[in-house]
């Protein structure tokens, strides 16, 4: 029983990492109807920004954290302006968006390798590595912090989407961009906002990921799991992204802990395919009217 | 306009590719930048009658970039030094290196390029078995010898009892290394219960695991848990939680420093107190940066005692030139280069086949020990392993150890 509880804690910790990343995919998908594969690159850049703010500029942690999120938001908007907006303006085929996203992702990764270098960067110790103890259970401080920060960010995001004017405009644009534009909504601004929010969350995810593990140019690769989680939960649905991530994290952990880690990806991806065959819109996927 | 965007996309991809080509810089330091730009520049030079090309392959990017960069820096430094002394057999040497990115396919491509396009007389590297094993067919086809640096899997030089004619190495092998670790854990540290966490997707990790378990159980120890992960994983807590319930005295972690650091940190976060132990995939400054406290008191098997007087001169020369500490791979790249120079001198020729023949009878004193190549194995025979303990962020030599003793 203790081992099961420990494994559940491990799973929730991994799930919360996936969730922060998956929300960025879902948010962009809900508006643009395509998956922003450059999201992993933005997460990686966020991690580097946080690292440099802490080590080169000696900023306090909160400031470095916020600075990294803002920089990542700006870069996400820049990626949209350079890689997607021109395609959008020309009504380019869907495939072009995917290729452009992949190109942007490759560019970001290789740009970092060429300028910063391919080796690992280790975050300075901001929080003690000493875990909290709950009897025989061990809960990492950083894991707890990640869980709390993820929950706050996601709650704030859901509030923003559901209760603010801009949030309603985002929902309207997700529902029907053309009609929204005709009704006076500046869809271009909506898209900028969505990318900025996605980038902000990516920056936060990047800093947390960097602190938890390490920073290197390929960390964006882990976002493939969060993308899968987003699809699993239902692309375009924010609660779906969170629920999909938590389920995937816990599932992977339980498979590794009770069967074998060699079966982890095999079983979790088989389940994903199973879900998609019987419910192609994912667990929490909704019809277009209820997106975002 | 579609055409315009087609061109734009192609440009983005081209820029990315160019970035990959040039993107081998480790740190913003100037020396490092020079080191990384070197392969491209050197590859442009044509072979002349007075210049002989020596190849190097290894990871300049990817997880093991720290090691690969150190190796290539070492080879270039030694080439410069030998050229400054008048060259080898009256000719100048030129080092040409290609990045394998830690990938087997890239390694094969790099060897093909070195042998067919650059016409190198011998190759040094790569730094891992996963890339050293698949290159043998190209070496045999092109008849160019290779001296692997830290590729410890037996299959690098011998497969199914047959020696690969053009593959050599300068390091000891996994069966020996695994046995050393297990022997030391049982005989010296007196541990009885061991757990193993290993990388199921890596030849090196699998080999070490196999031979560690064999020796540990033969010596009366018990393997209480054996858990696996896959290269690229970042979270090891599910496996470590399982290992924790088995309550081992020692956890054997036969994989590379990044994963060692992550898994060691996570083990401590789960309250695991067991001693950690590993192989030659451990030693790196990165390990200490990432997990200084978590690996405190751990042991690993190494090719060299970093405090040995024999290595100090090389350490200092490297530090002076590159303003950074030499990594483990640098010591072995150094000795691989010595093997090459010795073979050329004894063969009195730059003919790759003559160099190969001379390599088979190598018997020299390197900085990592005596290197006497076995004709039937192409491995250095009788090289003793060094046991290193990590104490307060320092690598502290314990003793030279051989499991037969």
Automatic annotation (TrEMBL), chain A:
BP GO annotations: D-alanine transmembrane transport; L-alanine transport; L-isoleucine import across plasma membrane
Any one Gene Ontology cellular component term annotated for this protein: plasma membrane
Membrane topology classification: Multi-pass membrane protein
Keyword annotations of the record: Amino-acid transport, Cell inner membrane, Cell membrane, Membrane, Transmembrane, Transmembrane helix, Transport
A matching Pfam family: BPD_transp_2
Localisation per UniProt entry: Cell membrane
Family, as annotated: Belongs to the binding-protein-dependent transport system permease family. LivHM subfamily.
CDD domains, alphabetized: TM_PBP1_LivH_like (cd06582)
Residues passing through the membrane, by range: 12-30, 37-57, 63-82, 94-117, 137-161, 189-209, 266-285
Protein name (Swiss-Prot/TrEMBL): Branched-chain amino acid ABC transporter permease
Entry keyword annotation includes Cell cycle: no
GO MF, any single term: L-isoleucine transmembrane transporter activity
Domain of life: Bacteria
UniProtKB/TrEMBL annotation, chain B:
Superkingdom of the organism of origin: Bacteria
Compositionally skewed regions (Basic and acidic residues) per UniProt: 27-47
UniProt entry tagged with the keyword Transport: yes
GO biological process: amino acid transport
Record InterPro entries: BCAA_transport, Leu-bd, Leu_Ile_Val-bd, Peripla_BP_I
Location of the region described as Disordered in the Swiss-Prot/TrEMBL record: 26-47
Entry keyword set: Amino-acid transport, Signal, Transport
Family: Belongs to the leucine-binding protein family.
Name by which UniProt lists this protein: ABC transporter substrate-binding protein
Species per Swiss-Prot/TrEMBL record: Biomaibacter acetigenes
